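Sample 1 of the test manifest.
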Amino acid sequence: MSPTTLYGLFGAALVGLGLYGLLTEPRLLRKIIAFNLVGSGVFLLFGVVARRGADAGLAGDPVPQALVITGIVVAFSATALAVALLLRLHEAGGGTTLDDDNGAGPDRPPS
Amino acid sequence: MPLPEALAAGPSAGGGWLVAAIAWPVVALLLVIAGGERLAARTGALALPVGIAIAIAVALDVANAGAGGLTYHVGGWAPPLGIALRADWLAAAMLLVTAVVATGAGVHALADFGPPRAGSPGRASLAFWASLLGAWAALNLAFLGNDLFNLYVALELLTFAAVPLVCLDGSAATLQAALRYLLYALVGSVLYLLGAVLLYGAYGTLDMGLLATAVRPEPAAWAAAALMTAGLLAKTALFPLHLWLPPAHAGAPPAASAVLSALVVKGSFFIVLRLWFEALPGLANAAAMQLLGLLGAGAILYGSALALRQSRLKLLVAYSTVAQIGYLFLVFPLAFDASTGRLAAGTALAGGLLQAVSHALAKAAMFMSAGLIAVTLGHDRIAGLGGLARARPATLLTFALAGVSLVGLPPSGGFAAKWLLLSAAVATGQWWWAVVIVLGGLLTGAYLVLVLMHALSEPDASAAAPRPVASWRDAAPLVLALLAVFMGLAGLAPFEVGQEAVAAQAHGAMP
């Protein structure tokens, strides 16, 4: 198995783990971390794509690397915004999980 | 494209206004932040009319440019090395309606988020104006971008500007709604990005024009299209991914709700359109397009039924948005041409665009008038609306006029949109979508008549006296509602011209 394929599989695994966490995890901080896992998986795939472009005789395709820098900045900003909102929610007494609309959530915070 | 050829292609003439449409809101945003809390409202309010002028300039340039629309190569670098901005009649119409609705929301917001008076904190004002201008810049980028990664950045900027609009009051309930919205939006954009990586890996470009000629129906392209579409649907709040929308849109201040419901969800919808009509035309197939239509039909019926069951006015209006988004997705099955296996730009696309534009105008007007009703009565319980017709006739008139367009009564823009969709359904022999469109119209009529009946009834003896609200605040929503109502008359002519232009483009420019 070539290293590129291995990286690709690891990227896919990270995306899968992150999506699972996003869907099943009720706690918001863990959801935010799960989102970062998905993001890391996607960024790893950018690296794989850059490496595959190198098959054309170049040392590496620079475009995905430029894209990934932007992607990392965006994901970092998103995480900062989410954590800031979560802190405000905690201060406002809204707990650290998402309320279900019908109040039937598995662990509804005391309100 | 070989390297020397790419370098030789210079920027096309006349694209300067496209840059202005994106740069101006960003400049205004920076000025708002630099000016601080005291000057935020004045700077923002002055920047908005300039945006309308820029949008008109783009529309005139597009009309002059003819069928191909306008293209601008940023920095003089042609794709695939550089990125392109492109405006056609679809983008020009969206730019224009965005500028108009944003200006209406801005004028309306001068009461809530105006220059700070003695003792009132100006932070919410600064946050509102910065977010409004940020959302506007991101929307313009989403309408003009021709590069899938550029569009990803536009989507993320749009989310970052829209989330603060949801939780301007900082209460636990709106913070919950904002976080739920943010998580949906982030998952949506990361799925979109994953799809974009797959496309780049398979075809080596992210430019929509170059992708259109390169993409072949094969697993990598299918996976990419599915991931990107799913991500965009989560951001557009298409049923069944709509759960975040009602609490987020109903909890925000009226001017912010207007921007969120009228414009922000259209940004991601527009990218779905671009993706299927232009970037991946070879991938469309009957089953996928019917599935998109089915989700749209689910949104229309489910959203309308839930709107009918709401006891609070703002939630009713928010569920109405869930339903109206459904109409937008009927474009896909109706525009699919089975003989060529491609989406054809014709009646269905014109109807979809008209629906996006008229819903933007009507829903902005409706959210603002619902906000004024809530301020007048001190609550927004539908059962307690009695006496409103006497207390605030102009506000109720605005609400009703916006409703005329949502239901689709002539001569409104909503009527023209639904008429075009209906005729596309008949012309392509897909009668089941016509049934959905008619049923949706009936349900919309039912929940709006319910509101009007309560508002026209006598007030309860126990009801508190209505509070006075400055009458100028009715102006912005009334103008938007009138635009929505009369767009059916004024709007159809340019749309037909646009349709012909697109048809000519589709026949002439296809390789």
